[in-house]
Amino acid sequence: MYWPVATPRIYATSSQAPYRPKADLSNDGIDAAPAADTASLLTLDSAASAPNPADENPGESASELPTPATPALFSPRTPRTPGINSVEHDYMNHGSGLSSQESLGGSQQVAIPSGEPIVSLKVSRTGHLFATITATTMTVWQTKPTVILAVVVRSQASVRSYGTNLALLLRPDSAIFVVQTSLGYLITYSLATDAESRVYKPHFSDHTNIQRRRQSHFGGPGNSSPDQIFLGAGEGSGVRDISVRFRRVIKVDAGIEHVLALDDELVVATRKPAAVQCIRWTPDSTGSQTSTELVSRMGWLEKKISIKEMTHDRPMNLSTWITSDGKAYAIQRTSATQGPSQDEEAGPKRLFKGYCFHVPEGESTRAVKAVVNARFSLIAVGCADGSIHVYSVKDYSGNIPASHIHKNPVSSKSSGQLTTITYSPDGYCLFAGYEEGWATWSVFGKAASTSFGANSSVSANNKEDWLTGVAEACWIGGACEVLLLGRQSESIWLLEMARSAVTGCYNPPNLFRTVLQSSSSVMVYRGYDLPDLTSISAEPFLWHTARIPSSYLLNQWPVRCTVVSADGRYVAIAGRRGLAHYSINSGRWKTFGSEAAENEFSVRGGMCWYQHILVAAVEANRSYELRLYSREAALDSGTAMFTQTLPAPVVLITPSGEDSLLVYTYDNLLYHFVFAPVGNAVRPIQVGQIAFHGIVRSPARVRGLSWILPESQLVDGDPSQDVAVASVLFLVDGKLVLLQPSLNSEGHLKYDMRVISQNVEYYISMRDQSAVHMLGENHGHFTGDAEEAPLKNSLWIFEGHDLKAWPDVNEVLRAATESTKELPPTANMPLDFYPLSILLGKGIVLGVEPDLVQRRDISFSFFRFSIRTHLYLPEILRFHLATNNSLAALKLAQTYQDLEYFAHGLEILLHHVLDEEVDSAPAPEAALLPRVLSLLSSFKQYLDIVVQCTRKTEVRSWRTLFAYLPPPQELFEESLQRGSLKTAGGYLLILHTFDELHTASEQSVRLFSRAIREEDWELCKELARFLAAMDESGETLREAMELVNLRVKQDRDEGADLMSRLEVPSRRFNGASRRDSDTGSDTPSASDASSYGTVSPA
């Protein structure tokens, strides 16, 4: 559901020496005299940004960390710098801004070393800043605007003493930075910021002409403050003023394998001895700050191994370890407050418990990287061959079965080693970086985009390191952008990503209509109401692109939620606070008239449209509400049409049917509202609710929801009774769960639960599509009402690789009532692109695929995405025929028979079935081919389809095909009788192949003369070429021409005799026409002797 767009932006400390910003030199405490005190890693003065006592009194020095229990792991006395100044730089205007640092003794200005590649890149949890390191420097960046806030350059003495920088870690709240060095040291720095101070702020003394916030046709200027006109999306807060201060050096004599920075502690995996040491940022209540556990004493780990990599996921409270033997473990911390006991032999305190879930089968499947996807409860393990094995976390007791595999898009030799893997914040996209490129997949394994198709020479000439290898990657901006760090590169690349609106707001309109959102625009596919062949083209005009107003993006970036109306007329977006909506017809945005009204609430739980009314689930002043906004009214405080207070936050809202609204909340209640007119306005009226306590364990894990009502309830049922008879579909993580109501022995309502599909990225119930909008799309293709449409009750699911469909969901409901009964089979549609919506009226699946464009006339590469379509009709027809439901297949085919590409769909069906049965040779009673041919014979394109299929298959397949067909001679005669001359020519070739066509046969002569009479000179040319190819002497063609001339002359004489008897004037009628008896169509008159003549071979 994610695709790269355009070309990335590039950032670096400097590309030209004169503009290289200055930085502060840090000796990292090596000049200070050692002493002892009782300070912690994060002292109170650093947390409060107060002056450091050591700064005021250079004679004071820092303390050492408490010595760990393991003798080989210790933190010796490490002196702290007597006065490292805070390092803040305004990188706007080539570093010519102001600096607020103090001029303390021991600090000096130095230039940033040039030519050093970036070693590591890390982003804070909130994404508002990120940091990079080179071998000797550390740079702190602000995300929006993307500028340098501080640079620290380590002195030569520090580099000699501690080694060069190897890795960077950020405490999740970004208050502490930790740099791992090559000589086994950890250097810590603290960061403090002033929420009110700004480094750079433009000022205009006269701003009478500055454009104010307004309702605009486009996303142009419209900022409310004159000093913001230079700022872009998310840059309203300006450039912050921060202070970076050296704190402490930690030495690990045992050698560092990997380090992990958590909220409460620093976790260090050591080499000799192999152990895990936990160093708290601040001492606990007992004064303890460190705790250690040897790997050899972890009974659930193999002996004589070390820990190579560690990751941690805060939402799931789960860590992963990768060991030196290539295994992967799921880890939980047993205690973060107590260290090991003094008598380890008697009973050491266990710090961790874990379970092995990935065991390599060989060298190629040894684990090298791991990452946790909390949104879908998955763990992805990157292997040595570049493939990524994904496991599903069922519980915290080691039940972690294999789920699926993301295959390396190229060979492991072409891709190089796997360097990084990371999931997007919403969990829908997996990004993998390799030494020679990168690739992305959807959450359950659908390949999305890759850089391995890039031209290496063009990329090298353009110095586009982001295409030729990735060292690290981090998502920012709510997954609308990704930071890429190339191998041995001095630059950072910021690549923009477009994603489906379903990722932020899961509801039926977003599934029925393809809507993509990027960092600054919304793209809506508008081919639904266009002619069939136009709607499946890849032309850019099929996209309606609307730029989001900059006045809204200034402070509310990134956009988190986008929703389209069921009729495709309106679009609404919501960012950090407030919302905005847009009319596709008028091209006009509406935003809030004041910043106070916009910042008063945030959308939480999604949005949806009911006609021209926008329904938003919001959180305002710690209350949770449903608000209704009319598209026709202005957005401002108090302009909401209606407000409904709810007792708990909303998980999601979704429209259902014509006038129903389903609201699911975090207290595990599903509310049913019905829109009804009250006075002169429309109000949602609650008519029922369902409690799912004990059924749905975690409401936060629910991604999608809908329900299915019986037909009788839809027609004349009481809406207040819908909750008692509705079957509810929940999409929980990747499982599609069906809940069916029933009564227990006491007569109370209960629900029977059954998982009907796994690894589901999304599902679509066609019952949620309004009948009005179905007919609006179909352009008369459907012969009956929408209620009679064959796929009206279908249920579609996308399982990562294949799109599957149950043509009738009622069969699923009946099968699910019995837990032992198997679910009905599905129609499977393998796709080579990511499907986004089902166009029921056009019989196609719509999706997009990215395309990397590299041209030699421009100095950069860029991504664009193109429309892809797949005709699902052959698969659904085959499904019905395979289940001996020929009547359903015929009804479905008749529904789509007016499509311009209907015959093409039937040809695909015949071609696929023929190819399979030629190889498999099934028994006649089990063969599917005769059922397909029986279905095809019901349509006028039958003869053409058979001929087209033979032209595209090998001759060995023809015998299998015609074993279930009338003789080719009969099909030739029927084609000639219908006037399908080109089709008859195709059967002429078949007759020749089957040796049923003799030299200068009567069939060739009849077809040739008929083509001359109807002036089909192209066919005449093809027939002449065909006859000439039958023998090298040309005798066959000459003999045929003589017979053709004789037949033409006879036809001319008969026509002349007929005209004389009818007393037709002798004057020629070149434009006359008559009704041909064979074809029943208007053809040129045979009586006009001048319209055809004799033909002789040349």
Automatic annotation (TrEMBL):
Keywords: Membrane. Residues 1080-1098 have a biased composition (Polar residues). It comes from the Eukaryota. It comes from Neoarthrinium moseri. This is RIC1 C-terminal alpha solenoid region domain-containing protein. Pfam families: Beta-prop_RIC1_2nd, RIC1. The lineage of its organism: Eukaryota, Fungi, Dikarya, Ascomycota, Pezizomycotina. Residues 875-1045 form the RIC1 C-terminal alpha solenoid region domain. One of its GO terms (biological process) is retrograde transport, endosome to Golgi. Residues 48-110, 1057-1098 are annotated as: Disordered. Its main location: membrane. GO terms for cellular component: cytosol; Golgi membrane; Ric1-Rgp1 guanyl-nucleotide exchange factor complex. The keyword Membrane applies. Residues 95-109 have a biased composition (Low complexity). It is found in: Membrane.
